[in-house]
Design brief:
The chain is an alpha+beta fold. It has helices at about 35-45, 55-60, 75-95; strands spanning about 10-15, 25-35. It starts with 11 loop residues before the first strand and ends in a 13-residue tail after the last helix.
Length: about 110
């Protein structure tokens, strides 16, 4: 049985993005551990980007480098993440009574 090292885990983060007019698939925008992970998370919070914690998904996606597209075998899992983000945005919009986003506009940041 593999033993986990004692002590706190080092924070890791990975940012995904998808621009339909440019990308064939979602891609890794940034990834890092420790201080870099903290900066990625701080940037997401500062821009109102929802954050989802999922160690299993992070482990799968950590093999990719920034700029890499998500491989087809992970499309379904990543689609669930984007669905989560869209639900969060819709809930936020509903609570603040903002108009619905235009089809090609970016989410509030």
């Amino acid at each position: 049985m593999k033993r986990r090292p004692s002590g706190p885990r080092r924070k890791e983060a990975l940012a995904l993005g998808y621009e339909p007019s440019r990308d064939e698939a979602p891609r890794v925008l940034a990834k890092g551990a420790g201080e870099l992970a903290e900066r990625i998370l701080a940037a997401a919070r500062a821009h109102g980007i929802p954050v989802r914690e999922d160690r299993s998904l992070l482990k799968l996606l950590s093999r990719l480098e920034p700029g890499d597209e998500i491989p087809p075998e992970l499309f379904l899992v990543v689609a669930e993440v984007f669905a989560f983000i869209y639900r969060v945005e819709e809930n936020w919009r509903g609570k603040t009574m903002l108009p619905a986003r235009e089809k090609n506009s970016k989410p509030p940041r």
